[in-house]
Amino acid sequence: MALQQSEVRALIARHKFRDMLLDVVGLVVMLTMMLILAALFLQLVMDGGDRLTADFFQNFPSRRAAKAGILAAWVGSLLVMLVTALAAVPVGVAAGIWLEEYAPKSWFSEIIEINVNNLAGVPSIIYGLLGLGLMVHQLQLGRSVASAGLTLAMMILPVVIVATREAIRAVPQTIREAAYGLGATRWQVTRDHVLPYSVAGIMTGVIIGLSRAIGETAPLITIGAVTFIAFLPAPPVQASAPFLNFEWLTSPFTVMPIQMFNWISRPDAAFHVNAAAAGVVLVGMTLLMNGVAILLRYRARKRIKW
């Protein structure tokens, strides 16, 4: 008996040591990646910090590096991400809910699940070719903000679906059973119990998807993003009735990664400085977008009463 107890203690000690070793390795890897990211970002700030002025944000691109700005690029990025979020998030969340809560376990749902998981790993250039054939030519949307946003929405849709399913799957089954026991319908259980408890995980998937989309270049080049543009799309909101304007959806566009690619491909070193400054702005936009999503996720978690 004493021998068995000693063996159990030794086994527990080995498992604790392995857990601690895994924690240390994971912490070291995470800190290393964060230091590399911080070093790269600091290098961007050192290279392009002097160009981060009001004129840089308010000027259009120019053949003269000192007068060139990112006005068209950052406005285009915001409009494209608006279309992407409005198209991908509702569809992705609804698809995840259907697959996890409503879809019967059959060969049809299994095929859908396999394809969704496979699509999450497809290279972005493939989505660019799909957007070129479907959005630009078949649907006749042209090389516009709508085509770009819908193409990126297709790209991040599998990520949102998978994250939604995992978040819903993490909700304890006892919560569903208790609601059903009180006479709730399936939709009431999903709306009032499953979704509030899973919204934090869903927001994590949305953050990951949008963070990937805002930095993509290949799909937008494929569908025909403009590398030099000296005008802005029509504003989505206007002062006179009907107040909402949808002309911007059909406007030509450029985005931050395209503008950076254009500048970094030029031999003049002054344009490389502009590209570094644009990189700082792009990282800042990504962090700001993630910060807003994290704040919404935090507020959603606070509203949950366990």
Textual characterization of the structure:
With 306 residues, this protein is mostly helical. The chain has two domains: 1-51; 55-303, MetI-like (MetI-like fold, Orthogonal Bundle). Helices cover 74% and strands 0% of the residues. The protein contains eleven helices and no strands. It has helices spanning 2-48, 54-58, 71-102, 107-119, 124-138, 145-169, 173-181, 186-214, 218-223, 256-264, 269-303. Helix 1 packs across helix 11, helix 3 (71-102) packs parallel to helix 6 and helix 7 (173-181) packs antiparallel against helix 8 (186-214). The longest helix has 47 residues, at 2-48. The radius of gyration is 24 Å and the shape is globular. The mean pLDDT is 84.
Helix content: over 70%
User: What structural class should be given to the helix and strand makeup?
Assistant: mainly alpha
Q: Total number of β-strand segments?
A: 0
Count structural domains: 2
Low-confidence stretches: none
Series of H and E elements:
HHHHHHHHHHH
* Overall outline: globular
Q: Briefly, what CATH class of the largest domain?
A: Mainly Alpha
How widely separated are the two ends?
A: 42 Å
Secondary-structure blueprint:
Layout: H1 2-48, H2 54-58, H3 71-102, H4 107-119, H5 124-138, H6 145-169, H7 173-181, H8 186-214, H9 218-223, H10 256-264, H11 269-303
What are its keywords?
mainly alpha; MetI-like fold; globular
Give a nutshell description of this structure:
The protein is an all-alpha fold and 306 residues long. Helices cover 74% and strands 0% of the residues.
